[in-house]
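Let's practice the habit of predicting before peeking. Look at the sequence and jot down your guess about where helices and strands might fall. Then scroll down.
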Amino acid sequence: MQTIEKESAASVNWQLNGSFLLHPELRKKALDVLDNTAFPTTKTEAWKYTRVAKIKNSHLSVQENPVSLIGNYGLSADHIQYVFINGHFSEELSSKSYPEGMKILPLSKMDEAEVRVLGGNVLLDGEVFSAINTAYATDGLYVHVSAKMQIEPVIEIIQINTEKNILTNLRHVLVSEAFSEVKFIQRSLSVDGSDNFTNVISEIHVGKNSKVTIDKLQEEHESCFQISTELVNQHQDSNFTINTVTLNGLLVRNNLTIEVDGQNCESNLNGAYILNGNQHVDNHTVVDHKVANCESNELYKGVIDGKATAVFNGKVYVRKDAQKINAFQSNANVLLSDDATVNSKPELEIYADDVKCSHGSTTGQLDEEAVFYLRARGLSEASARQLMVGAFIEDVIQKIENEVFTDRIHTVLKERFNWVIE
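Done guessing? Here is the structure:
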């Protein structure tokens, strides 16, 4: 492969000093990728509508030493909480105990021999941000739920950025063995932080007949960048659900890939994004049905105001031997201003003939007749529009079972947009 001297991802003006955790040979492979690969541009099909020049041109640095922070950043005292600040584990803000039947600890606290075997399943070739994460990961959370264990407390993974121009690379590994059940909240936020870049990869292994649920909330500062990647592997009879809610951040890219390797699996992907100002949010999903008798459901809804831009690219593969697949995909958007933009591309690629698959995309503005109807019943114009937008987005919110999590969503909507949604 020809080296790209001036444009390679390794040529960025970032300060990349620190202690990095993954296997040296794996890190070397990632660094080789960065030496020989350019940052994606709009000519790169997967990044056609998302420009990453602002990330590339930022003057970022890795924070070498952990910082202290005072406060409680979890959503509930009943949850198991693990907190990472600027890419480093915060022992003082994290839980001290957890139920029997599971192993949970930050990578920085694991034995070196254990950490060395992690990370090898992530595709690096051509994937600049995955290579950056692999080369410069400073920490992350390892969770292993034993077979037949039902973990009652929700596990919160809290990613906090502080200060300015900080690059955070976290690598999480979440494993549920056969017949187990576990629920996660993955939350990213800013505490006096701005102009930061958070780059996270989560490797998720869903064992036979197990159930894993992830509720993900993105509420970083409006000047921050985030690229979040989930790589999911599902085995026979398993159930995986992920709910992604994006409420803030200047540029947010969610890469979600689910490989369905066992029969009778169910995969549920739900997403909501409420954007304003100059925000840009890109949801990229892939569901790969490799075997028969499985179902996937995908619902993403967005409300876009100001000069914000949303991108949705969802792809469902149905392989040749994957008969009797039910796959449903829907993306709907409401534009609240003339300057708001949506690029939506739902896709199906089907090689089997005995399937039920559908996809759809709609983008429009609020129904002015409905607004007039509500105003005629005594509501102000602002209240009428808020009510309609709330009903639209609540289709996704209602799919989230964790009430503490949905309460936080409503709180942020009130703080950021002055919305009150019942």
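How did you do? The chain has a mean pLDDT of 92.
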